[in-house]
Design goal:
Rossmann fold, alpha/beta, single chain, 337 residues
C-alpha cells in the first residue's frame, strides 16, 4: 500500500484527509512543517509521497532523507520552497494545486487596497484608543484611478475583473498578453516603466522567478508616483524590503498593503523562537525591517492569509487528492518540474 505523509495539516483539513485516505493508503497526518529533521519520525522516511504547504522549506538537506520518494503533492500554487533541481536529478515529481485561490486572493488584494486608501485599520485602532481625528483619516476613492497589475495570470485576471467593477483604468504588465482580458476589462498592456510611472495603485500577482526577484527595488520606487500605494499578495521576494522601507520613510510612495514578506517564516515559524541560530544574517536583517514596517501608519501587514477561505481550502484538498490518486494510477497532473 502506498505510504503518504501529509505535513502542515491544519485542523480544518483533518477530517477531509482522513476520509479521502482511509482504506486506500497508508497515511500519516502531522501539523508540523517539514523543517526540523530532528523531529522527522523514522517511519516517514520511506514514504512514496509527501504533501506539504508553503510553510515547509523542502531543500536537498530535507529530501535526501526520503529514500523512496516519488511525488511531492503540494497544497499550494507556489513551489519556490521546493528544491526543483534536486527533484529533477532524483526523478521526483512535484505537483501543485493551481487555481484554488484565484477569487480569494484577488478579493483580499482589493481589501488591502481599500484598507490603505480608506484607512480602515487606522480608523479602527484610533477609535479603539478613543483618539479619533477626522483630518488624519481622509482617504481616497478607487473609482477613476489607475491600477497597475503586475502578473495577469489566473489571479491577476480575477483582480482585473474586480478593478474594472470599481471603474478603474487598468494597466497590465506580463510576459505575454491575454486578448480576452484586454477585451473584457479594458486592460492596457504597457512596459514595466510605464506602469510604474502612471499607476496610482499597483497590485502584484506574479509568480516568483529568478528573473523578477526584487523587481521592486530602489530604482523602481523612484519611478512611482509619490501618492502611489503598493499591494503584494504574491511573493515577498518580489520586493526588496530595504528599498520598500526607504521609499516609505522618504515618502517616495504613500503606502503599502502586504500579505507576504521576505523571510516571513521567521515571524510565523515557532522553530525560530526555539533555535534563534537558524536565522541567517540576511533573514535577521529582513526580520528587523519587517518589524519596522509593521510600525508604520501607512502600512498594513497580514500573515499570508489571502488564500485562506473555506472555499479555497476545499479546492486545495480536492485538487491535491486528485493529483495523488492520478499519480498512483500512473497519470501525472499539474506537475511543475
Amino acid at each position: 500500500m502506498t505510504k503518504i505523509v501529509y505535513f502542515d495539516v491544519a485542523q480544518e483539513e483533518m477530517d477531509f484527509l482522513k476520509k479521502a485516505n482511509d482504506g486506500k493508503f497508508e497515511y500519516y497526518l502531522t501539523d508540523k512543517s517539514l523543517n526540523n529533521l530532528d523531529e522527522l519520525p523514522q517511519n516517514y522516511k520511506d514514504a512514496r509521497i509527501i504533501s506539504c504547504f508553503t510553510t515547509s522549506r523542502v531543500g536537498k538537506d530535507v529530501l535526501k532523507h526520503f529514500t523512496n520518494l516519488e511525488l511531492i503533492a503540494l497544497r499550494s500554487v507556489g513551489f519556490n520552497h521546493i528544491d526543483l533541481d534536486y527533484c529533477n536529478e532524483r526523478g521526483i515529481v512535484v505537483e501543485n494545486t493551481p487555481n484554488y485561490g484565484n477569487k480569494s486572493v484577488a478579493e483580499f488584494a482589493i481589501g488591502l487596497l481599500l484598507d490603505i486608501c480608506r484607512k480602515i485599520t487606522k480608523s479602527y485602532l484610533d477609535y479603539k484608543e478613543m483618539d479619533v481625528q477626522a483630518q488624519t483619516l481622509i482617504g481616497n476613492e478607487l473609482g477613476g484611478k489607475t491600477i497597475g497589475i503586475v502578473g495577469l495570470g489566473a489571479i491577476g485576471k480575477e483582480f482585473a475583473k474586480l478593478a474594472y467593477g470599481f471603474d478603474m483604468k487598468i494597466l497590465g504588465y506580463d510576459i505575454s498578453e491575454n486578448s480576452q482580458i484586454k477585451e473584457l476589462y479594458k486592460v492596457d498592456y504597457v512596459s514595466f516603466e510605464k506602469l510604474l510611472a502612471e499607476s496610482d495603485f499597483i497590485s502584484l500577482h506574479a509568480p516568483l522567478t529568478k528573473h523578477n526577484y526584487h523587481m521592486f527595488d530602489d530604482s523602481a520606487f523612484k519611478k512611482m508616483k509619490k501618492t502611489a500605494i503598493l499591494v503584494n499578495t504574491a511573493r515577498g521576494e518580489l520586493i526588496d524590503t530595504q528599498a520598500l522601507y526607504n521609499a516609505l520613510m522618504q515618502k517616495e510612495i504613500a503606502g503599502a498593503g502586504l500579505d507576504v514578506l521576505e523571510s516571513e517564516e521567521t515571524i510565523s515559524d515557532s522553530d525560530y523562537l526555539v533555535d534563534i541560530n537558524r536565522l541567517t544574517d540576511c533573514a535577521l536583517k529582513q526580520t528587523i525591517l519587517n518589524t519596522r514596517l509593521q510600525q508604520l501608519d501607512n502600512v498594513v501587514i497580514t500573515p499570508h492569509i489571502a488564500y485562506n477561505t473555506l472555499e479555497a481550502i476545499h479546492r486545495i484538498l480536492n485538487t491535491a487528492m486528485h493529483n495523488i490518486n492520478s499519480f498512483v494510477d500512473g497519470v501525472v497532473d499539474n506537475n511543475v518540474n
